[in-house]
Amino acid sequence: MRWAEGRVSVEDSVAAPHAATGRLLRDSFLPGISAVTLGLVRAGDSSLRVGPFELLRFGAPKLERTGVEWPIVGGLLAGSSGGTWRLHSSGGRLVASVDGYRPRLPAAVYRVTQLPLHHLMTRLYLLRLRGRDPAPGVTATSSNRIRAAAVDLALCATLAGVAGRRRRVRVLLGIALVYHVTCWSISGRTLGGLVMRQRVVSVDGSRLSPAQALVRFIALPISWVRGRPDHDEIACTDVIDAEP
């Protein structure tokens, strides 16, 4: 991220084996952001909204063969009109960039609130657009995933027991959260993953961001209830076989 004279420029990208057209990028962006936020952020004709509040409003898009660019013209999150939001496909990557945008928030607050959310939503949108084909590796079997999860649960339960009996459930949840998010975002491998020789990766094969790992962990109960790996769909991740 670059911050100069109250304006910010920031870029995110993911590996993509297939080039995307400017038309596809234009048509997928607003609905795509709504999808990754599970409908919390809604797409208008030329804006992103939460309830009655217009977060960002865009001008008419400028379409290119493998890219598209919108001027940022207003919204609750914009301190003033100005700057651009650009999507393009180049060199085997899908790239999203903001240039010259003036946030309403002060720089110090923006860096720890709006910026991490921007990175997370943009990354998930790009990964969904990239898709799961080709897969980032050989997908781990369900049985091996269950065995790895059992090892991790046993480890977290043991650590919670060592920490004490008071508020044991809260302690267990806290340990499990820190343990999984840290392991997934650093190496993609928990102790269970090491034992079963598997790794958690993004669908483009890259390492998970900490925010992406947190989303995956928070979405785990949905998978338990529905009996399928919905947390991987939500977080745009996969579990693949890996060598030691």
List keywords for this structure.
alpha+beta, Alpha-D-Glucose-1,6-Bisphosphate, Chain A, domain 4, two-stranded antiparallel sheet, 11 strands, 44% helix, 25% strand
What does this molecule look like?
The strands form two sheets. Strands 1, 2, 3, 4, 5, 6, 7, 8 and 9 form a nine-stranded antiparallel sheet that branches. The chain is 44% helix and 25% strand. Helix 4 (142-163) crosses helix 5 (168-186) and helix 5 (168-186) crosses helix 7. The radius of gyration is 20 Å and the shape is globular. The model has no long low-confidence stretch (mean pLDDT 95). By secondary structure, it is α+β, with helices and mostly antiparallel strands. The longest helix has 22 residues, at 142-163. It has helices spanning 22-36, 107-112, 114-130, 142-163, 168-186, 191-196, 210-218, 220-226, 230-235, and strands at 2-4, 7-15, 42-43, 47-50, 53-58, 62-63, 67-74, 84-90, 93-101, 198-202, 237-241. The chain has nine helices and eleven strands. The protein folds into two domains: 2-130, 2-Layer Sandwich (Alpha-D-Glucose-1,6-Bisphosphate, Chain A, domain 4), CATH 3.30.530; 142-241, no CATH class.
Secondary structure layout:
Elements: E1 2-4, E2 7-15, H1 22-36, E3 42-43, E4 47-50, E5 53-58, E6 62-63, E7 67-74, E8 84-90, E9 93-101, H2 107-112, H3 114-130, H4 142-163, H5 168-186, H6 191-196, E10 198-202, H7 210-218, H8 220-226, H9 230-235, E11 237-241
Antiparallel strand pairs: 1-2, 2-9, 3-4, 4-5, 5-7, 6-7, 7-8, 8-9, 10-11
Helix pairs in contact: 1-3, 4-5, 5-7
